[in-house]
Structures are given as structure tokens and as C-alpha cells.
Amino acid sequence: MSKHRPNRVHHRQPMPGGGQNIGAPRATLLDCADETRQSSPPSAPNWTTKRVLLLNASFEPLTTVSARRAVILLLRARAEVLHSDPRGAIVHSAGHQIQVPSVIRLTVYVRVPYIARVPLTRAALMQRDRNRCGYCGGKAETIDHVIPRSRGGTHTWDNCVACCAKCNHRKADKLLGEIGWTLATPLRAPSGKHWHLVSKIRAFDPVWSHYVPALVSA
User: What is the domain count for the chain?
Assistant: First the structure.
């Protein structure tokens, strides 16, 4: 007597990343990542960790996106390359070959709500002070509270200044009047749409400074 075997239901396993195509048929970012490892220059860092500057169609800086996201936008024709990275990895898909860019621009303008208040971050403060010590003008390495926190000072734009390690150590918890120091320039909160982007950037490509004037090299 033959045993009856129940019908087996075969479930199709989903592709990594949801199986979404990003351009040509059968091309996925997983495929791109695999092939990129073979076509990246020996000195190039892992392309998936790279950040790319994204501009609006009006050339207004919006944000930075991952290299993976930048490639998706390019393959879907939602953005165009403004600056390629000569040392960047080359990403392959079926019928396509794209060098990971440094700056891309959206092909369609998007409206972004304006936020007046710029968050105080180390990156933004260093850029506001041009990476220079507010006391001696040397290269800034730290952030100092003009009125020390221990003496009631606040962590605000008008009480924080970029500072070199030497001045920070000499000033300690003293007030400027007690040691006869003065600030090189008045301390103010920066204004402008691009400062919201600057406050989030920790490392940047020098090319970005053409589109984000507030950015200066360390």
C-alpha cells in the first residue's frame, strides 16, 4: 500500500533588499557591491561607507546620502552627476557602469521646509569659526565655553568658541576678564539653509565647498 504524501508548498525566498530593481533588469545593489570589490582602486576605501553631496535641482545643497543611495538615484534617472570621484569605486549592473560620484543633483525640484534654528554641533561650530582658535587664532582642536559651565555658562552659540588645546588648558575655568583675554570676533549663531547640512557633516570632500560655502578644510 503506497503512502500518501501531502503536497508540498514551495515558498519563494525573497531576494536581499526586497528584490527591487534599481535600473536595468536583474540589477541589484547586492550585485553592484559584489562586482565593485573587484573594480575598486586598491587605495579606495569601502564604497558603501562613502557619503555623496545631494543638491536640489536649483543647486541648493540638501543633504548627504550614502553612495548606495546615490547610485540608485542615478540609475533611476532621478539625479545627475555634477562631480565624479576619480578615486571612487566603479559600480556595475546589467548594462550599466557608474563611478561612485562626489556630488549629484536632483533632476526635479523638491520643496524643503525651512528651519530657522541651526543645531549647535561640534562640526558646525568648527566651520563657523573656520577651524581657528577664538583666542589666539591657531588651529582649533577643542571647544571652549567662554563662561565656564561650572560658573553658570550655557552651551549655546554665543558662549561656545573653537579653541586650541593650549588656550583651553590655560583658560581652564577662568573668565576672560580675569586673565585679560578677548575674543577675536563676536560669537553668533550662523544663519542660512545650508548650515543645517553643515551641522551634520563630520568629514567632507573639498569639492563640496563649491556648493556649501560655509565648509572649510581643517
Answer: 2
